[in-house]
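ugh ok fine here u go
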Amino acid sequence: MMMALMPVAQAPDTLQGVTVVADRGVVVSRTDTLSLENVSSADELVYMVPSLGLSDYGGLSGLKSVSLRGLGSAHTAIYIDGVRVSNVQSGQPDLSFIDFSSLSTAVVDYAQNSISFNTRKPVFTDNGINGRAGLEAGSFGTWMPSARLNFRLSDKVSASAGLSALWSRGDYPCPDGSTRTNNDIRQLKAGADFWGALSKGEWHAKAYVNDAARGVPGSVTYPSDDRQKDRNAFLQGSLHNAFSRLYTLDLSAKASMDEMYYQSAWGNNEYLQRSFQLNSTHIFRISEKIGASLSAGADYDGLDSDTYTASRTNITGAASAFFRLGMLDANIGVQYDLWADAGKSSRQALSPSANLTLSLTRELSINGFARRAYRVPTFNELYYVGYGNPELKPEDALLSGIGIEWNHGLGEALRLSMSLDGFYNLLKDRITSAPTEEDPNIWLPYNIGRMQAAGADLGVSLRYGGPRWDWGFNLKYAFQDATDRTPGSSSFGMQVPYIARHSLSAGADALYRGWRLALDWILRSGRFDSYGQMPDWNSLNAAIEKEFSLSGSLGVKIGIKATDLLDTRYEAVRYYPLPGRTVLCNISIMF
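structure:
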């Protein structure tokens, strides 16, 4: 599956100064928007974005988290429909809880170090109801049914309800000839969305539930029969309304519950996390070329477990100004954060930011940004019995980048896009975890005094959209030199664990008369961990599908998708082998 780079166009005659994310106000951004039309899981998305790193513990049941440009998963924020997914226990939720079948796009924001997932809004033609039902099944006893119904309730209100499930034995072969067992998963996801139009805006409400039970097989050197159950539920809403030409209001609120039950031979543990968010952003457009914004937010997170209890309140305030001077767009802001852990410590930080965009022509632009990014340790990093380190320092980062982007039309149907971005991130007291030498199953957190990540991203895409053919080519490369720069450190100058020095993805796809063919090749090179250099790896993925139109609005789509077609065996995390060649067949009925 190919995910083409889709740059955000610059408006030629109105202020293009801000992108609004509901829970944190004005965002200064350099973003890539990726289609999720043919993406089933987090690893399919991540491996198409070379600057993203994936921690994958194997198979569909393996826990998955992502990091962007060397900053770690807890420093990489995840959003769903503009509202942040909070997890102060581990820093980032396991991305397998997301129902990718309901999503339309993912926005990778390099300045904000975040990924935003957006739900597919229904489109209606003649009828007030449509939908889709599908089944994907294949290797290792995997079955993934899904269904979604969309309703037009009135001229201004629409709704969508979806249900999906996953069953997999997960017993794939390992390179040493053994079989990966206790890697099964049973998962059910359900959600409902409501959209409404206002006279000068819109609102969106969302409810979502995930329930999963899975095996946790451990590493190949220390296998286990551990089991894990996850239950996640949240209710969120957002409102965007322009009360006048001068004033726009954005509001969001969220309540969520995350429960995990872990069963092992050493004992059972249960964790219950509750989170509440309330955020507002006020945008003042003084003129067509000058504006400002103020935002405020409050988050409460509480964790109850049989090993420790903790709660945290985060208060945020931000202010920014944006203006246009000729070809230059500028956005300058500052954010204040206060974190208070009940009965323990409190921390605060002031984070300035700046973003400049110079539109040289309608096709060529230069973008630069700089901002401070501050992260306090998670509950597990601080308080988990036998693992937590109460002496951990917060991460304090300077993020910066400069890039050039060119989008050129070669006739009416052909478009060439190119981008080159250089970045430099300096991170003080980076928090990382690594297996201990005594027992690889025991990981402990520690601070790397200073870490710098410098590198560049290169992207080239060529897209043709004609009356009969639609095809495209895509090439993305990332170089990341992420090294420990702590004076006197035993790892001084060494690459930070699991960050690939060289990452490459190349893809091509074609669409003709309902047939679609896609090929992707992925390469990761120059990765290290605490044991030394890890083997380089590459993977070839292929997909083919055909869509048939039946009577009226009824349609059928059938396809087959092969991941790691050449069966290249590799590990994202040492001693946790990934499945190798995986083949899934799919069928969908649209009405």
